[in-house]
Amino acid sequence: MPQFSKFCLDEGENVGVGTCSGQTTYNLVMTTLRSSSTSALNASIKSSTVRPTAASTSGRLEIAQKLLLTPFGLTEAHLSKALAEISSKGADDADLYFQYTRSEGWSLEEGIVKTGSFSIDQGVGVRAVSGEKTAFAYSDDISEASLMDAARTVRSISGAGKSAKIKTPGRKIANSRSLYEGQDPIATLGSTAKVKLLEKVEKLAKAKDPRIVQVMAGLASEYDVVMVARADGTLAADVRPLVRLSVTVIAEQKGRRETGSAGGGGRFGLAYFDDAQIGQYVDDAVKAALTNLEARPAPAGEMTVVLGSGWPGILLHEAIGHGLEGDFNRKGSSAFAGKIGQRVAAKGVTVLDDGTIADRRGSLNVDDEGNASQRNVLIEDGILKGYIQDSLNARLMKVKPTGNGRRESYAHTPMPRMTNTYMLGGQKDPQEIVASIKKGLYATNFAGGQVDITSGKFVFSASQAYWVENGKILYPVKGATIVGSGPECLKKVSMIANDMALDSGVGTCGKEGQSVPVGVGQPTLRIDGLTVGGTA
Prior knowledge:
The chain has 11 helices and 28 strands. The chain has 536 residues and is α+β, with helices and mostly antiparallel strands. The strands form 4 sheets. Strands 5, 6, 7, 8, 9, 10 and 11 form a 7-stranded mixed β-sheet that branches. A 5-stranded mixed β-barrel has the order 13-20-21-23-28. Strands 2-3 form a two-stranded antiparallel sheet. Strand 9 (212-230) and strand 10 (234-253) form a beta hairpin. The chain starts with a strand and ends with a strand. Residues 4-44 have low confidence and may be disordered.
């Protein structure tokens, strides 16, 4: 039975995961559209060349223990006792996942800051794995009693096997990276300054053009501390800051109203949003809204489509990325299953999933199973090289984990998930690619769509696109939908530009009800023979 992936757009807050025809769905959610303001983050797109080390983990482990163990009278000895309890029935793997999250959000609408929220959540998830089976329990009560109750509950996954004495494994500190500072971003700016920042956004936007009739802005910050203890004695921890500023404007002209959005963020403090950065977001949002006021109905038919750089990589993420996750391929439900070593894309197409880029929204020092993040080459020059893996699927497929075991929180189990997924750039000038279009579509932003994981077929709606004839951009269009197959789409790539860019730091990917922050990116691409549904 097919599995559907669904991409949704909500201008302001993240959208929840729904279902399609009773099947599990997956969605990539963007809180704000990608804008040209990605340049600051893309000035140096470099993966970490520093090898992960245990020393990088030690300081974070101390922070995690002070927040998640010491206040509740727990020590590493209690963790070893719980893991021994789980392993006593012969489980193949087991882990404990402790988490402390502090988050804050502010939103402005109609000239006033209408909402401000603050929350703290903490708890522990306990997992046992036997073969393909997983038993999982979680609690927001961090205590020895709750921990042991959960351990006794999940050990049943191994059935009625005989109890055995388990030798306590030696303590091992996991290797991890140092990709971002472990600061609390909520504390990097006072409440009054946060309100003034949002008010500045509105003032700037309305001053840009009298046709801007409404401004909405949101500021979100999160401080996340996680700690992982595994059955083999491995201990890992991470301290993860995350911030986001989003701007949405509504423009009105002769009774017609259109929206434009922009924004960005990453794993750093709120000082990133200085006057220049705020001004760039406002400029991009206003420009998008005013452009959409002039948009005409989109033509339909089979045609050449050029995708812009940066955020249009969401099509790559959905139509290709999910199909390269280990669980789908182990089960044979992906269109890419069993094709390692085969050509799955045109020459020149190289796709990576890279969790090692400094300060990026999708980057991780260590994944949610205690494995250091990696730079994984998935497709190289059109040849499929590998899949992204968590520990369970890697063990069953007899390969190594790739640092992609991710979960939304302590209340969820890990699974193979993307981090920052992007295509490398080529040699062409982007203007040359647009100029090569005889008749076709130039799409620079997408609003939503869905993908069938099994077949790879997708439907995406362009939120900003232009009609091109004889190499000239004639006018903006609206109502364009792009229809195709992910595997076939990759084979139709005929030109790749040298302007590879990542999105501005706004993506959230959903899978099986779990949402995690991600990044996407690509250069400008020409794809021949895609079907475009229009309204003209």
